[in-house]
Each structure stands twice: as structure tokens, then as C-alpha cells.
Specification:
Pfam families: FAD_binding_2 (PF00890), Succ_DH_flav_C (PF02910). Helices cover 39% and strands 14% of the residues. Strands 5-2-1-9-17 form a five-stranded parallel beta sheet, with helices on both faces. The chain has helices at residues 16-23, 29-32, 44-56, 94-104, 111-131, 163-181, 246-253, 300-307, 324-328, 338-353, 367-380, 388-414, 468-489, 503-520, 528-543, 549-569, 581-605, 629-632; strands spanning 36-40, 59-64, 81-82, 156-157, 184-188, 190-198, 201-209, 215-219, 222-225, 258-259, 264-270, 293-297, 321-322, 362-365, 423-432, 435-436, 449-451, 634-639, 648-653.
């Protein structure tokens, strides 16, 4: 086991990033024209990085498996993006955002990275406004803010319920400008199959043209992985169907350490599972918890009656409802962090108070908000004594202006009108805080290989606060990576073009082809989805919202056996030299079957509960997460050694000089 060098700058926390930018090496504009960079993934992190690096003068190649960067999963982020602008005058600051993020992550993230994130957050908003992102505005023209879980201020900028889409269009437009200038070569419908190392440095990738099936060699002086998270290891998640771990995992197999894989976020505000027919789950934005109140019936007999269709939720009076988050966490109420809200919902449903047919759902109710907004709207428009009907009508209009597209989406999926009856929600896998280990410069343990956004582990610790994913992705892409990558590339100004006919490219392409041939020739009888669903069931039941030693040990053995069976009995139809969705899925599921075992191994070794990692053996008397700061105050980074069971643990100790370590409380 080695101690990882995070390359955090010396000096006071608030000066570290400024000092670091002043100290690192730069590449002059004329030399940038001779340097190539590959970026895998064109969501917010990858798109922002590609646009900015190309604007600086580098030659950029981008790769995405979608038909357009506009389809990146970043588009699905609905509720907003955090920034410490303090537009509301409610006491926000860079330090407050830093503190909330470290606390929200249950004290398992680097102070220096998180403070830098807070420091550049304001720049992101300015950049996006300049691009024309249509953030919501108040009457006077100022940008509006709303609150998200885990904070006591309003710092979330939003564009109705489409924030991710609008931000992605901003990054995409910036990319298009560089494509038009010839500084970005865009390779859509291409999937990275492996990372190529030359003399120990990342010097290119092997990519597969997903339309023709052809394998291609692409070289560069550095490779940036911005390929998102690995939530689809659970099969059912809020992630896009194509979201996968392939780029990050193939880099891991080449020597990039994988950090904290067990840190997975369960989002409390999702449309519940309805049966085995589903292939994915749908997220309802956390922004809904700003105004929606979460509850279950106080009496089990009422819950049973609702499940059996004998009662409607609207028939229960206020006294018959248990607003359990407001009861248990009076300071934060419905805006507790996601891990806390998810466990609370699970506890109520496990106790028999669930409200849908499966008993795995709670209510998210907007009736109070509709009345509150209606009264305010009536008053401001001169109606001093409005009728109940007028109040409700006006209130619905206000709610529609804030959340209309989300309500419409809910109604299309469930065939229930959320203006008239409470939404039903339940936790689901959403975001992954683990990822490739990176230092302060966002470089992995492979020189020249960088990871940005959800693909790295760096900023969220054991739990991500809502609206921080967009913030981190854009911070990494627009304001961190363009500085730090130059320090590495400054040593390559005399290197020249990297040839693709070298033995390293030849050998890596052969390994990719051999793996594809092995999948195509397995000759089994079970579909890829069969294995993915089985893996997801193991992961959810034994590595999901709650974990224990016995379940994790069972999961490791079951995943290992499933992986062996996969390689013997999977059936991949079609051809390797043509468009083949089954082959694409097979490669991704093969990686998930390895990641899943490492995930369980990481969860088993961490004998504590923190954030999204909840071990049943380690909890307080009140059922809250019980950390062990003495023995587990570190990042667990795993080195690939062949089988996941052989992975070697490396630790990065976490030092807290600016925040006091204490039990996380939202009461």
C-alpha cells in the first residue's frame, strides 16, 4: 500500500488556488497549436473542457456514444446549479458553500478541492449568463434562487425544471463555435474501448465507430475522461440507458486507481418502481422539495386502505398525516440532504406506512404550496378577500411557472394529476460520488490521463448535495482543467505528433479486438439484459440503501459467479463489423460485472457509515450514520491487479484544518 500524493498547494485555504495558478507552468499560444487533446464524453464537464481548451488554441478531439453532445446525460439534471453569489442576502459566501458541501459529504472530501469549487462557482453563473442560458429571474430582473437539501440559504440558480438542458445547450454552442473554427474534431457515435499508454503516459485511445463497427486509433498528448458515473451498475437507476463505466474502467485496468466505488447516492425523489417490466427509473427534481411536503399516514390502517384503493390521500386530514421529515429534522425539514431523506423514506415504508400497491412509496404534496402561493398572488394583484377557488387557481399558476414541466412529466408517466393529488415518490440510485482518483490537478495516477465531472471522485465525499453536480462539472471543465492540464502539457511542446502505428497502439487494438471476438463467440443462450438485471438485483438488495457484512460477502461471491457465467453463456447477436447495440451493451455489462464486485469489496472494507454508504452495523440509536474518523478518514483508492478480489488498497488521508469534524446533524 502506498500513500497517494494529492499535490494540494501549501498556504491558507482561500489562497491555495490563486497561488497554484500563479506557480504552475503555462503553454504559450503558438505552442498550443501543436498539442492535441482527446476528450471522452461531451456532457457538461467534457463539453465545457472541449470548448475552453479549443478556445485556448489546443487541437481537441471529442468522443461521445450519442448521435449528438446534446444527448449527454447532463441534460437530465433538472433542479438547478449552486453558486455562492448571495443574491438573496441570506448570509451565503464561498466559505458557507464550502462548509455545506464538506458537511453534506459527511466529511469525506478534500478541503482544498471543495473550497476551489466554491470559489469558482460564481464565475460559472457569469459564464452561462453570457452564453444566454435563460436562468429564472425575479421581477426586478435579478437572477432568482431557490433552496436545495442540506443548506439553510438559497443559492441554487435554475431554469424552470430544465437547468441541465439549458446549461448543456450553452456548452454545446461554445463547442460548435470551435468545431466551426476547426479547433474541435467531433466524433459522435464513437465509443472509447481502451486507453493507450506509451512510455507509461496516456497517449491516445482505441475507439469503435458504432455505425460501421470499425476500430480506430486516435492519438493525443493528453486524454481527458469526462464520461459520467456508474449508477447503471444497479440496472434500475435514474441514469440514461446508455450511461456506463467503460471509459473509466478501461483506464482503471490500465493503471488509474478507482476511488470510493461504494459511495453511491440514492435520490429520494423518484417515481416508484411499478414492476419487473421497467428498464429505468425517472427522477423528479429535488427542487420539488422546496415547496412539496413529504408525508405518510400516521396510522397503518390508513396506509393499508390507501394501498388497497379504499381511501384517497386527499381524504386524510392534517392530523392524520405524518410529515416525518419535518418531525425528525425541524431545522431543515423537507430540505435535509438526499441520503438522510432516502433512509427516512425507507424506514417509514419498511415500518408499513408505504402508500402505493407495493408499499414502497411516500407522498410529496403541493397542496400547502398551492394555497400559500395563491394567497400571495391574490394579495399582490389587489384581491384582498379571494375565494378558496380563486386562491387555488392562482396558486396552481404559480406552481406551474416554477415546476410545470416536472408536473407534466409526472402525469404522463403515472396518469395522475399532481395538482389535484399528491405525487408518489421513492428513493432510487442516482449519482455516484466514487470514480477515478485524481490529484488537485484532476490528473489520475496515469500521467496525462485526466478525469472531470462525475467520472472522478474529488469533490463530494460520501454524499452529494443537490445542484452540486452541474456546479462541479462546469467548474472542472471551464475553470480548473484548462489551467492544470497546461502544467503537464508544457513538457510536450517539443514532442511532436504522437504516431498511431507504434507497437503500443497495435497491442492495445489487438486486445480490444480479442475481447470483442470473445463476446461475439461466447455462443451462450442468455441475453445481455438477463445478466444486467441479475447484477442489478444483487446490487440493490445487498449494496443499496443499507448494507451489512453478511450481505456484502454474499454479493461478492454472487457477482463473481455471475461474471463467470456471463463469459460462458452470454449470447450476443449480430455482427462486430456493423451497428450492434447488443455488442455495445455486452461490453458495458462486462465492465459492470467487475465494478460491482469492487464496489462490494470497498463497502465491506469500510467499517463505518457515512453519507450514501450506510452499514447497518454502524448507526446511532436514532438510526443515523455513525462515522469512524479515527480509522476511516481517508479516500480508498483501488489499484487494478487482475481480478477485483485482488485489487490493492491505497489510502489518501483526509486532513481537516478549516472545518471541525463532528457528527452531522440536520435537526
Amino acid at each position: 500500500m502506498s500513500i497517494l500524493e494529492s499535490k494540494i498547494p501549501e498556504g491558507p485555504l482561500k489562497d491555495k488556488w490563486t497561488k497554484h495558478k500563479n506557480d504552475i507552468n503555462l503553454v504559450n499560444p503558438a505552442n498550443k497549436r501543436n498539442i492535441d487533446i482527446i476528450i471522452v464524453g461531451t456532457g457538461l464537464a467534457g463539453g465545457a473542457a472541449a470548448a475552453t481548451l479549443a478556445e485556448l488554441g489546443y487541437n481537441v478531439k471529442t468522443f461521445c456514444y450519442q448521435d449528438s453532445p446534446r444527448r449527454a446525460h447532463s441534460i437530465a439534471a433538472q433542479g438547478g446549479i449552486n453558486a455562492s453569489k448571495n443574491y438573496q442576502g441570506d448570509g451565503d459566501s464561498d466559505y458557507r458553500l464550502f462548509y455545506d458541501t464538506v458537511k453534506g459529504g459527511d466529511y469525506r472530501s478534500r478541503e482544498a478541492n471543495v473550497y476551489r469549487l466554491a470559489e469558482v462557482s460564481g464565475n460559472i453563473i457569469d459564464q452561462c449568463v453570457a452564453q444566454g442560458v435563460p436562468f429564472a429571474r425575479e421581477y426586478g430582473g435579478y437572477l432568482d434562487n431557490r433552496s436545495f437539501g442540506g443548506v439553510l440559504v438559497s443559492r441554487t440558480f435554475y431554469a424552470k425544471g430544465q437547468t441541465g438542458q439549458q446549461l448543456l445547450l450553452g456548452a454545446y454552442s461554445a463547442m460548435n463555435r470551435q468545431i466551426n473554427r476547426g479547433k474541435i474534431q467531433s466524433f459522435n457515435r464513437h465509443e472509447m474501448m481502451d486507453l493507450v499508454l506509451v512510455d507509461g503516459k496516456a497517449r491516445g485511445i482505441i475507439a469503435r465507430d458504432m455505425v460501421t463497427g470499425e476500430l480506430e486509433r486516435h492519438s493525443a498528448h493528453a486524454v481527458v475522461l469526462a464520461s459520467g458515473g456508474y449508477g447503471n451498475v444497479f440496472f434500475l437507476s435514474t441514469n440514461a440507458m446508455g450511461s456506463n463505466v467503460m471509459a473509466a474502467w478501461r483506464a482503471h485496468r490500465r493503471g488509474a486507481y478507482f476511488a470510493n466505488p461504494c459511495y453511491t447516492q440514492i435520490h429520494p425523489t423518484c417515481i416508484p418502481v411499478t414492476g419487473d417490466h421497467q428498464s429505468k427509473l425517472t427522477l423528479m427534481s429535488e427542487s420539488l422539495r422546496n415547496d412539496g411536503r413529504i408525508w405518510v399516514p400516521k396510522k397503518k390502517e390508513d396506509a393499508i386502505a390507501i394501498r388497497e384503493g379504499k381511501k384517497k390521500p386527499t381524504e386524510l386530514s392534517e392530523e392524520e398525516r405524518d410529515y416525518y421529515l419535518e418531525r425528525r429534522y425541524p431545522s431543515f425539514g423537507n430540505l435535509v440532504p438526499r441520503d438522510v431523506a432516502s433512509r427516512a423514506a425507507k424506514e417509514r415504508c419498511d415500518a408499513g406506512f408505504g402508500v402505493n400497491k407495493t408499499g414502497q412509496a411516500v407522498y410529496l404534496d403541493f397542496a400547502s404550496a398551492i394555497k400559500r402561493y395563491g394567497k400571495e398572488a391574490a394579495f399582490t394583484s389587489g384581491h384582498k378577500n379571494p375565494s378558496e377557488a380563486e386562491i387555488i387557481k392562482l396558486g396552481k399558476e404559480v406552481v406551474e411557472s416554477k415546476y410545470g414541466n416536472l408536473f407534466q412529466m409526472y402525469e404522463k408517466i403515472t396518469d395522475q394529476n399532481p395538482y389535484e393529488t399528491p405525487m408518489m415518490i421513492y428513493p432510487a440510485v442516482h449519482y455516484t460520488m466514487g470514480g477515478l482518483w485524481v490529484d488537485y490537478n484532476l490528473q489520475t495516477t496515469i500521467p496525462g490521463c485526466y478525469a472531470a465531472g462525475e467520472a472522478n471522485f474529488s469533490d463530494h465525499g460520501a454524499n452529494r448535495l443537490g445542484a452540486s453536480a452541474l456546479m462541479q462539472g462546469l467548474a472542472d471543465g471551464y475553470f480548473v482543467l484548462p489551467y492544470t492540464i497546461g502544467d503537464y502539457l508544457s513538457k510536450d511542446i517539443r514532442t511532436g505528433k504522437i504516431p498511431t502505428d507504434s507497437p503500443e497502439f497495435e497491442a492495445t487494438e489487438k486486445e480490444v479486438k480479442d475481447k470483442i471476438d470473445r463476446l461475439m463467440n461466447a455462443g451462450g443462450k442468455h441475453s445481455v439484459d438477463t445478466y444486467h438485471k441479475k447484477l442489478g438485483k444483487i446490487m440493490w438488495e445487498k449494496c443499496g440503501m443499507a448494507r451489512n457484512e453478511q450481505g456484502l460477502r454474499e454479493a461478492i461471491e454472487e457477482i463473481k459467479a455471475l461474471r463467470e457465467d456471463f463469459w460462458k453463456n452470454v449470447k450476443v447477436t449480430g455482427s462486430a463489423t456493423a451497428k450492434n447495440a447488443e455488442l455495445e451493451k455486452a461490453g458495458r455489462v462486462a465492465d459492470f460485472l467487475e465494478l460491482g464486485e469492487l464496489f462490494a469489496k470497498d463497502a465491506l472494507h469500510r467499517n463505518e457509515s457515512c453519507g450514501g454508504h450506510f452499514r447497518e452495523e454502524y448507526q446511532t440509536e436514532e438510526g443515523e450514520a455513525l462515522r469512524d474518523d479515527e480509522n476511516f478518514r481517508y479516500v480508498a483508492a483501488w489499484e487494478y491487479k487482475g481480478e477485483p478480489s485482488d485489487a490493492a488498497l491505497h489510502k489518501e488521508e483526509l486532513i481537516f484544518n478549516n472545518i471541525e469534524l463532528k457528527t452531522r446533524s440536520y435537526k
